[in-house]
Amino acid sequence: MDYKRGSIWRKWDLHIHSPTSYLNNKFPRLGDGQPDWETYLKEIESRGEIGVLGITDYFSIEGYKKLQEFKDNGRLKNVHQLLPNIELRLDNFVDDKRINYHVIFSETLPASLIEQQFLGNLNFVYENRPQDTQYKMRIDETNLRELGKKLREEDNSLNGTEIEVGAGNAVVSLENVIKVLTEDKRFKDKYILVVAEQIWSDIAWEGQDHQTRKTLLQASDMVFSSNAKTSQWCLGKDPYKEGEGAFRKEFKTLKPCIHGSDGHELNELLRPCALRGKKGHVCNDTDCEMRFCWVRANPSFEGLRQLLYEPEERVSIQPTDPTFLKSGLSLESIDIEETIIDKHLKIQGVHIPLNADLIAVTGAKGSGKTAFVDLLANCYFDRKQSDDPNSFVKRISSNTGISLKVSLEYVNNNSFSKNALEDKFVDFADITYIAQAELEEAIFKSGGLNSQIHEVVFGSKEIKDSQLEFEFKSIREEKSFFKERIKKLNELIISLESETSTEKITNLATFDKKTNEQLKDKKQKLLELEKSLSKETIDLAKSKQQDVQNLKLEKSKYESTLLHLRELGDKVEYELSTVNASIKQINTSLIAFKIDKTIPEIEINSTTYQPIFENVSKQIHQKLTKTITDLKTSQVVVEKLESTTKSHATLSQEIKDLEHALEQNKLKRDKLNANKLELEELEGRRNEAFEKLIKQSISLKDKYIQITNTFGENKGKILEDVEFSATIKFDAEKFVQLAEEIFDLRSVNTNDKEGSDLFKTLEAYRKIRSGDSEEIPNLLAELESIRTGLKTKLKKSPNVNLFSFYRFLYGEYLTVYPSAKYKSVAIDKLSLGQKATVLIKVYLAQGEHPIIIDSHDDHLDNAFIMDELVPALREAKKTRQVIIVSNNGNVVINSDADQLIIAEKNESEIHYLAGSLEDDDIRKIALKVLEGGHTAFKKRQKKYRIN
């Protein structure tokens, strides 16, 4: 069979007896006494899919040969593979019990070889005379019958047929078994020795049986047991107290526990019930305590051998399928249509069923590894627009004539297909794709690693949509609010500083002095003139002057009202419409919140009011026009007065104008003083806002620590060596750089050294960064010192102004970011290779949707691969589908990849092969392309073994 999907969990039964079994045979027989094979076969065929059956007979493989013949002829289609399992009884006595021992052979060995070279070279003895050489015989049916016949002659109380008596009393030595198997090289790696727990566990550790048990276990590869405690003990775990290393030292290897139904009758076949033999219990499918043996491997002897290298993760004894529960949106298969890209490149069409756990994509350089995963990822993201220079889809995107169809099937029966260059993407599922360029950017770019840590923390189920996340976002929003407030305050302050400048104060004082002198002079002239004029002339002059003055005031009022009217029109047209839009948006939210109060809209709009504004404006214009006309008339009248009268009227008008000018100047002084007070208030509000901005950074850090602590309580095994926290970073480099851009460096020392103009400010920031909130007043004082002392020392440049000065002075230089340590070492202190490995672990810990990791072998740290990446991959595949591209033998082999997809390129054609590590053909190809592949396999094989 073709097992492209790789290693998956299947139900195995490695210990069932056949109708040819010599002992305890309770299978039905036909009328002539021959085995009822049809009934036996139908019982097995009714039990559903079975990965492997270990066909077990005492001192024989007759049952295996017969069942293999049936399978070759089309029966037992529900069973993937049969293995011969020879059950032996050893010559070791434990109290009054013998020890059952099994040898399971590879299906690749001819039956004749097993019979002739193993059983034929194995001697058995009569159990009561193990040292008497005259009773040593080669194992075959004739010799067993002869022994049974002899024993019945010696003791007529023995029940059973000659073969039953002979097989029931024949024993072999373990030394003889091992000698026969090891001397014939054809058996090398083609057998597995298994001791049965039923009797083995009865051997006492204290006393004379200790060495017997130890020797038996040392020689064995596996143990037949369904007991959970025994399984753990055989892995060097509790209840074994000394640990895995001590266990391997004492017993040579860790021992995976396997199980079978040990069926001797139809009702027991493929029913490994723990309650069998219990008084009153009858085995059936509903009342049994089933302990099925599940093996994650190809259904073959080579698949069984994988348990030697993965004694814990490749076998599980439990009632239900141990397959990890994954998202229904995991990938079930991928189809790539045969396509000619150009005259130099062709992709062979392929259908690959995908493993739900860990898939390793490997192949020689340029063989199409990245092409495979990039085509897959392109179903989710537009890879032809990618900035990744390694993107296969991007490279072929210029060839618009190609039709490279990729189809995906999902576990939940969803499907998707597209042409590689089509703008069509999966919209019902997520996938994480870590392309080569993206990992490089994260580890080389400042803050890239922290950004990923932030994502994994806030994407976790402990934090996402939690109260802590809400509080964190609220603090961050408040920070943004204060940043914006400072910006607006800066604009207002700059405007008021312009209005309250020293130059304006001086100009107002100078104007007052000059105007008062002019007024004094005009009044003196008027007094001198009035001495020579009659009262009637003076009164006439004053009257005409007053007419002109009144019309001037009236004109000023009309002009002012028109200005206010235009401003009002603008507000109605632009500002109030925005206000009403905001009110509508808020009311929508209030209704959604089920709040029974809403905000009434302001019932003003330009459509209603614009005609009114125009009508009023028209009338004012008419009055203004008339006033201007009257003013001109009055001025003409004054011009026509008698010269002395005219002089009096002119002087009086000039005096009124000067007095009015002084009044206006006083208003300006009052306004300036008011602006100065407002400026002081705004500067205080700016300091207050800036102080709150700083405090919010500290609060954000404290909240971040709360979040990382909560996350850290349940961060899982993948990140168990990573300690998460938060810190405040002060960007001193940015602070100094901005200072150098705006200050005249001939008069301002901007370096970060004691004695410089910025040093005390930098020190205050550093203390706050450390969490010292009491340093904030000192920081504000230092900023004020810079504001007052260095404001006049800005560069003479069109790019430097008060806006850039205040942007520098009250900018944000404190950033709260997640920090992490790997085994107490800060991540930024790790090498690039170590960072890359830790970052991939962070990616692996995110979410439950599939993840694709393109080749990053050049960036990985070899020591970290075995210590960190391999365990992370093993853990991540329990919760999500993982696809990793790698030519690193340790990544592929020691992560125990469930499926290998090998990319090959023959001349100009790319094609893909798929299978498992235990697939001999796949393994041979993989060893050619995997860097350190042979070493990695040896390392994996020795992981749980001392030889």
Low-pLDDT sequence parts: none
Helix residue percentage: 40-55%
Shape designation: elongated
User: β content, as a range?
Assistant: 15-25%
Any idea what the radius of gyration is? 47 Å
Determine the N-to-C terminus distance.
Answer: 33 Å
Mean pLDDT metric: 87
Count of separate DSSP helical elements: 29
Strand order of the largest sheet: 10-9-8-4-3-2-1-11-12
What assembly state would you assign to the polypeptide chains in this entry?
single chain
Number of E-type strands: 27
* Major sheet: 9 strands, mixed
Instruction: Name the structural class.
Output: alpha/beta
Summarize the structure.
The protein is α/β, with parallel strands linked by helices. β18 (405-410) and β19 form a beta hairpin.
